[in-house]
Amino acid sequence: MAVVPGRLQGKVAIVTGAGRGIGQATGMRFAQEGAHVVVAEIDREVVFRAAEDMSRVGAEALAYPIDIGDIDQINQMVSDVVARFGKIDILVNNAGLSEKAAFLEMTPEQWDTLQRVNQRGVFFCLQAVAKQMVAQIPDAVKQAGRAEGSHGKVINISSIAGRRGRADALHYSVSKAAVITITQGSAMALAPYGINVNAICPSVVPTRMWDNLDKAMGGANGLPPGEWYRRRVERIPFKRPGTAEQIAAMCAFLSSDEGDYITGQTYNVDGGSELN
Fold first, then answer.
1. What is the pLDDT of residues 139-153, one digit of tens each?
2. What is the mean pLDDT of residues 105-134?
3. What's the CATH number where 36 sits?
4. Which of 16, 88, 260, 276 has a 20 to 30 Å separation from 44 between CA atoms?
5. In the predicted model, what is the mean pLDDT of residues 167-174?
6. Which are the contacts of 259, defined by CB distance < 8 A and separation ≥ 6?
7. Do 107 and 233 share a domain, yes or no?
8. Are 168 and 225 found together in one domain?
9. CA angle (77 as vertex; 71, 83 as ends), nearest 5
10. Domain span at 231
């Protein structure tokens, strides 16, 4: 997981949900490797602090408050980033929502809220950034219908929940399965332009999301704080959670020149939780 100084030198990366957790770790990793980072985050309490932290390691970091479920805001962000930096090289579609909901009790509002961000937001953010990436490609490459190298990198953060349905969070599983399908379809659509699209499926990573799940599920089952989380970790073959920095390291690899010949793939970074 060693940082590779200069590996992403001069690249412009948008990281959604970059105010905390996996997104924050990814933005910091990118900054440490030389990229300019757009901290796209809905929570104004953390977005500016995260950008300041990334700026301290030498990168130019732009705090950009945004609701990734709003297509108009996505389009404006792309326009603003290009006006500021002149281009977009990398997108990490990390922003997302998670909750537990019993199958027979799930409401339309719960379903729609998750799909708006986790599925709709991911697709339209990818589409808007991909349009800009294509616009940056020399006309000769576009006319040839093939590219010798990479002209952009997209990494979508899915989840091992997207590998199979969860009875207690079906709406979340569906949204993350959609991310995998979006990754595959967009990778094929963008391959002629040399734009790489891949996905990562984390398992348990100690973030605020997992704290909230522990409170909700532990409380529903009469468990003391931390016990539901402990039992969930015990189901991982490695018997330990992953870290945000490990997911960030995979994002950095896929965003680098070393990932130029990889596209349409979804990688489980999960301690062996899923084997497909």
1. 998 899 899 999 999
2. 97
3. 3.40.50.720
4. 88
5. 92
6. 150, 153, 196, 198, 253
7. no
8. no
9. 145
10. 206-241
Same domain, 132 and 219: no
Q: Are residues 234 and 148 in the same domain?
A: no
> What six digits make up the tokens of 150?
């990479």
Kindly report, residue by residue over 18-55, the tens digit of the pLDDT. 999 999 999 999 999 999 999 999 999 999 999 999 99
Token digits for 238?
């490695």
What average pLDDT does range 187-202 have in this prediction?
97
Closest to 17 (Cα-Cα) out of 52, 69, 76: 69
| Active site residue ranges | 172
Q: Kindly tell me the burial class for residue 74, based on how many C-beta atoms sit within 10 Å of its own C-beta (0-12, 13-18, 19 or more).
A: buried
Sign of torsion over alpha carbons 21, 112, 165, 259: negative
Indicate the pairing of strand 152-157 with strand 266-269.
Answer: unpaired
Question: Looking at the structure, do residues 197 and 217 belong to the same domain, yes or no?
Answer: no
Q: Is residue 275 part of a domain?
A: no
Question: How many structural domains compose the chain?
Answer: 2
Residue 276 within any structural domain of the chain: no
Under the banding of pLDDT at 50, 70 and 90, the label for residue 177 is very high
| C-alpha distance across the termini of the chain, in Å | 24
